[in-house]
Amino acid sequence: MHQFKRRVRKCYKAFGWGAMSAIFVLQPTLAQAQIQRSFLNPGFEQPVFGSAGQQCYVQVLPSLIPGWETTHGSVKAGTGSCNGYVSPGNVPLIEIWTTGFNGGSGATSTATNAGNQFAELNAEQASELYQNICLLQNETITFSFLHRGRSSATNADVANFLIGLNTDPTSTVFGTFSTTSNGTVTAQPVAQNGATIPSVSNNNAGNGWVRYSGSVPYTAASGNRPVGFAAVSTAGGDTTVGNFLDEVQFAGKPVVEFTASSGGAAESETNPTTNPPKLRIVGLVPTGGISVPISVSGTATLGTDYNTTSGTSTFNISIPAGNYDGSDATSVFTIPFTVINNNIPQGVRTIVFTLQPSSSFFASSTMTCGGSPTVISNYTIFDDDFLSGKVWDDADNSANNTFTNINTGSETGTNASGLLNAILVDDSTNKVLATTPVAADGTYTFTNVPLNQNNVKIILSTTAGTVGNTAPAPSIPPNWVNTSPLTTAIFNTGTNISSKDFGIEQLPNTNNVTASPQTNPGGTNTVQVPALSGTDLEDGTLGSSKSFKIVSLPTNGTLYYNGVAVTANQVITSYDPTKLTVDPNDGAITVTFTVAAVDNAGKEDPTPATVTMPFTVGKPKLLLVKRITRINNQDLNDIVDGRSDVSTSAANYVPSLYETDDDSNKPWPVGYLRGLINAGMVKVGDELEYTIYFLSNGVGNATNVQICDLVPSNTTFIPTAFNGMTPGDGGLPGADQGIALALGSSTPTVYLTNAQDADRGHFYTANESGIPSSCGININGAVMVNITRSSDLPNLPAATGNGTPANSYGFIRFRAKVK
Q1: What are the Cα distances from residue 362, in Å, to 331, 356, 366, 369, 376?
Q2: C-alpha torsion angle, residues 550, 555, 557, 560 (rounded to 10)
Q3: pLDDT tens-digit series, residues 629-670
Q4: What span, in angstroms and rounded, lies between the C-alpha atoms of 287 and 19?
Q5: Residue 266: closest CA among 400, 384, 97
Q6: β-strand partners of 613
Q7: Which tens digits make up the pLDDT trace of 709-736?
C-alpha cells in the first residue's frame, strides 16, 4: 500500500452528483495522523498544468497530484506537452489532460461544468488510481464519478470501482462501468457485493461523459483502505490508451469529535480564544450542511458563569457543506459560548460539553480510524478574581516586620481612611499588572488577574497603580507605620491565592500639658509633673499604666521617675503619674521638656508634645518659737505646744496669734521644740538659758534673715556663757562668746562672739547706739544674729517636711542671770 506523500494545501471546485447533490470540495493540508473520509482533489484540478487555455497533457509523479496514489509501475519515462513540463523519468505515472487536448469538437473536453483537467487511468499501462479512506464497519458509503472512453464511439473502455487494490485478493469490486468516447453506455453498470448503482443514460454529463453514482455497504473491520479505479479493458485493447476519469468522490458520513478533552482560561476571557472546546470534522458534508447537537453540564452555572448561543443547556453547531480533511485551518469549529466575568471570587468552575448522537455524522476518532472519539470536552473557568488579602490594623505589632501572626485578638482591618491601594506588580519589569483600592474593612481582591504569571509581588501604596505603567513606590499615609513589610515576597499566580495580608498601625498622639503657675519649692525640693496623656486609634486614651518616652530633658531642672533621675529618650513603662517629678532650678522659671506617647505596638508619636511647668517665687515665712531650755545646770527637755485656750497662768499658754506657730506638729524635726514656755518661779542669781527656734515655713526661700531678741528685763546677759566652745564663726580670737547658733541641728553648730566683728552674732548693750530699729527699744541689751549671709548661706529654703531640708530650721541660744 502506498503511503501519503503530499501535504499541499488546495481548494477545489464544487460539483453536482445524483443523491449527494452539489458538494463543496475543500482540500487543505492533511495532517499526518488524521484520517481521510472522502476523496480529495476529486476533479484532478490541482495542480494546474500548462498555460491558460493550453490543450496539453502530462505524465507526472503521483506526489504532484494531491490526494491520489497509483499502482502504475516505472515502465517508461513520463512525457507531456504542457508548457514548463519536465519529464520525471522512469517512475510510477499519473496522466493528466487539459480540456480539448488530442482532438477538436470537444472530443477530449471535460464534462459540462467539470473544470479544466481530468485523468487517464491507462497512462502507460493498466493501473489503478486510488486514495486511502477510513472506512467504518457497517456503514454505507455513497459515491459519484464521471467516466468516458477514449478511442472508440462503439467499443467501451471498462473500469472497476473497488475497495482495495486490484492486486490484493481481499479487494472488493462493487461496480464495473463501460463507457465509449461519445458517452454511450454499452452495458449498464454492474453492481457487486451489495452495492446499489442506478441505471444511467448515455452522455448524461455532456461531451461524451457519463456520471455514475450509487452506494456501497461496508461490513469489514474499521480501518484505512485504498479505494479507487482499476482499468479492466480499453476499446482498442491498447493498455496505454483509455478510461478517462473526473469528479470522483467516495464518502461516508463525516466523522466528528472534540479536538481535546479539556481546556480553559481565565473568566476575563469572555469570548474564549485561548483554548476553547472545538469540533474537528473529517469527511464530506452535503449541500445544506449538518447540525451537530451539543449539551452542557458541569459545576459552572448556565446564566451565571456562562451563556450558550441558545441560552439553554442544548444547542447546535452548524457545519456548512464542504469536503473537510480534518486540518486545523479548514476543519475545526470553535464551540460558541461566552463566559460571564462578574469580578466576584468564585473558585474554579467547569463546563462539560457533550457531543450528542446524530444521524448526520459518526462520533469517531478523527486521528485514528475507528478509534474512540472524544465526545466530552471540559472547559475550566479559572477564577481570575482569586488573589486577595487584608490590611490589618496591627495594634500590638504582632507582625514584628514579618508576614506572620499579623492579626491577633480583636484587631480589625483598615484602609487608612481610604488612602491605600493594593498593586500587583511584575517583579521582572516593575510594571503594574493589576491595581485595586483597599476596602474600608481592609480587604482587597484583584480582578482579572493574569493566570500563571511568574515572579509577581503585591505592594501597598497611597498612589493607585496604572496597568502597564511602572509601579509606584510602596507607601502609607502620614501618622501610620507598617508592622509588616509593604511589599510581599515574590510568588507565582495560580488559583485560590488568599491571605496576602499586611499590617499597619496608626501612631499615637501626645497631648501638650501646661501646668498652672506654682511657687518654686527651691533647693532640691521636687514637685509632681502633671499627668501625661495621649490618644491612639487602636488603644484609645493613653495615660496611667501606658508607656511614654521622655524625648528631651528640661534645661533648668532635673526630672525624676520614682526618685531616679530620668535620662533622655528613656521610655517609662507602666507609667504612674505620681512618680514623675521635677526639681526646678531656683527662681521664677519655666521648666519644659518633651514627651512622646508609646502605644501598645511599641510605636511612638513622631511629633512629641511639650510639658510646660511655670514656677514663681513665693513669699517667705519664718516661724519663731522661744523656750527656756535650761535653769542653772539643769536642761529642760520637755516638749510643750503652746495654746491660747488655757489659763494665762498655765504653763503652756501663748497668745492666740502665735498658738498655731508654737506647734511641734509643724514641719519641725521630731522632738525639736525642747524647753518650757513658763518655767515657774526663779530666784535672784539663777541662770536661765533662752533658745529662739526658727523655721522657714513659707512658699519661698527666706533671704536676709536676721533675728534680734531683747534680753528679758530683770535679767542680765551672761557674755561668757559659751567661752571656750568651738567651732567659732570667724569672730575676734579671745573675744567672749555669749551666743550659740544651730543650723539644721538639735545642738549648736557654731558659737558667736558678742563683739561686732566678722562672725554673724553681736550683743548690743543696753541703750547702745546703732541697733537696728527692728529690735525694738533696747533698755536691757539685745542679742542679734545674721542667720543668712552671702558667703555660705544666702537663704533659708522653705521646709517641706519634718526636718527637711536641713538648713530650713535651727535656733539661737543665749543665757542670762536673774537680777
Answers
A1: 15, 11, 10, 12, 15
A2: 20
A3: 999 999 999 988 888 888 888 888 888 766 667 777 677 888
A4: 11
A5: 384
A6: 591
A7: 999 999 999 999 999 999 999 999 999 9
